Amino acid sequence: MLFRERPASRLIVAEGAGALLFAAMALPVSTPDQRRVPEWVQLVGLAMLVGLYGTAVHTWRAVMVRGLRPDPAMRRRIRDERRLHVLVLCYPILIALLLPIPDTWTMFWFWLTLASAVGGAASLIRLVTAVNGRPLPDSAAGHAGTPGRTGTWARRWRPRRS
After folding, report:
1. Where do the domains of the chain lie?
2. DSSP 8-state class, residue 28
């Protein structure tokens, strides 16, 4: 349900999972005791940043096309739009800053990869707790295997006594 109504949550999953997968690949070969970071690590990291930039632009466009209609979830949508706006502005800056850094700075690359892994794990944990802590809508309550009020349908469709 959270993924259908909030495109930004799909982007959070893509960012977090991508950061963890990249860190799993890059950390063993970018430790500080290495002389230089392999070029394929930098190319995969650059490709991931460019891909995430494209995904952020696409998601931001989808959020803006839907519009900010007044409803109970408007505050959440505004927060999502602001987050996507910041991502769309920051990804090109991040790419431009990371391109000229030499591959001999293994300490920098190691700590940057480790920080991105921790950030990705933290965002995935926050999303999982948000999904698990969210109450179910009334339409799902009372169905088999779903906790909630079991008599909702019966109360709604019971004939009225005159």
Report:
1. 2-137
2. G
110 or 7, higher pLDDT: 110
Determine phi and psi for 79, rounding to 5 degrees.
-65, -40
pTM: 0.66
Amino acid (1-letter code) at residue 151: G
Evaluate the CA torsion angle 48, 49, 51, 52 in order and state its sign: positive
Separation of alpha carbons 60 and 160, rounded Å: 48
Q: How many helices (H) and strands (E) does the chain have?
A: 6, 0
Task: Say what the pLDDT of residue 77 is.
Answer: 73
Q: Which of 73-77, 101-105, 123-127, 156-160 has the lowest mean pLDDT?
A: 156-160
Structure tokens at 5: 């109504």
